[in-house]
Amino acid sequence: MLDIKFIRENTDAVRKAIEVKKEGLDLDALLAIDKEVVTLKNEMQELQTQRNSTSKQIPKASNEERPALIAKGKEIGFQMDELKPKLSEAEEKFNSLMLLVPSIPAHDVPVGGGEEDNVEIRKSGKLPEFGFEPKDHVDILEANGWADFERIAQVCGSRSYSLRNEALLLEMGMHRYAMDKLMAKGFTLTSTPAFAREAALVGTGHFPVGKDQVYYMPDDELYLSGTAEVQLNSLHTKELLTEDQLPILYAGYSPCFRREAGSYGRDVRGLIRVHQFLKTEQYIICKNDDEESKKWHNTLLETSLEIVDAFELPYRVIECCTGDMGTGKVKMFDIECWVPSEEKYRETHSCSSLHDWQARRTNLRYRDNDQKVQFCHTLNNTAVATPRILVPFLECHQREDGTVYIPEALRPYMGGKEFIGGK
């Protein structure tokens, strides 16, 4: 969400952001309802002033004047009662439209319509070369008895999975490695429930757009979230932080859920596009300063690259264009790891800077050292999301004898083993 004062004073910039981000917002409709709300509020305030003035006159009025003043007060009350539902309806429309206003992309973000216009800015690691016919991740898992897909689907539905033995330990080890690294960097490790109230999802910008991707529990009025960012973004909503408390660094660990609506028939094999997954999420609340945000954005990216390097995976970093970065993002990077069976890179991490766009939605504020109340800036990036990263990991590290190589960084979490699996 942007400040309405900023929107009024920078309509060209907002209109451009709507255009390059491919948003469906009618800015003129928003500005029109904004004027209507302002007009109705002014009318209401004027009537309230008149009623207050009239009320003060009544005790001092003569017996002859008092009935007229009482009647005038009642008439003003009737006018206010007629105005209240109009104002309420206008405010509701205004608030709904304000939730659709995109952030202004950073000046150096590439302009484009979709992922085909994203820009590769870095590439690292040598692509694996196999002297044998490599397997895809499903075949590797099944050959080693590391996963069940068919039985679990009968119980839990499609796009379910069940990891077994070493594969499960590997998944847990990846998260432990990421948590140990983040804790050493000053992040507070935080587990979060999988569910959240609607306001929390509105706060992060997952709602109102994106509701079709989220599981809903109507009896409890709760939703299953797709990232710990949802819960972490709302933890300090009712507080007024101080500048000295910032930055706040969280490493949020949680089960995550995504309906994957609209993706039927594509990318559904094995561990790709599953409905439930685990994620350790980096989340930062910092002061309202562009350079401070830029610093932490780069820190989040570099931390995830350290993790991918430790996993010894070939990767590339792309900068997302305006049409692929999401409504609230000011700047966004993706890390994509190489998947040999598909001969392409697949996204494993998404690193976003949102400035105060989320904080305005959740009323996330702090008092700066000059005693001025500011909205915080927020940023997030994946540390590890499983089973997503298992796909490139298993395929890149497979050996001809059926074993899978374990990089040195993960061996302490795998009983010291250099290889797992094989017959």
Describe it.
This protein is an alpha+beta fold. It folds into 2 domains: 95 residues, Serine-tRNA synthetase, tRNA binding domain (Helix Hairpins, Orthogonal Bundle), CATH 1.10.287.40; 307 residues, BirA Bifunctional Protein, domain 2 (2-Layer Sandwich), CATH 3.30.930. It has 12 helices and 18 strands. The protein is elongated, with a radius of gyration of 27 Å. The protein starts with a helix and ends with a strand.
End-to-end distance: 56 Å
Q: If you consult CATH, what is the topology of the largest domain?
A: BirA Bifunctional Protein, domain 2
Low-confidence stretches: none
The ordered string of helix (H) and strand (E) elements is HHHHEHEHEHEEHEEHEEEHEEEHEEEHEE
Look at the structure and name the CATH superfamily of the largest domain: Bira Bifunctional Protein, Domain 2
Structure class: alpha+beta
Q: Characterize the biggest β-sheet.
A: 8 strands, mixed
Anisotropy-based shape: elongated
- Count of helical stretches: 12
Counted beta strands = 18
What's the CATH class label of the largest domain? Alpha Beta
Strand arrangement across the biggest beta sheet: 1-11-12-13-16-10-9-4
Proportion of residues in helical segments: 25-40%
Number of domains: 2
- Taken as a percent bin, the fraction of beta residues is 15-25%
Query: Which CATH architecture of the largest domain is right?
Result: 2-Layer Sandwich
Radius of gyration (CA) equals: 27 Å
- If you average the pLDDT, what whole number results? 95
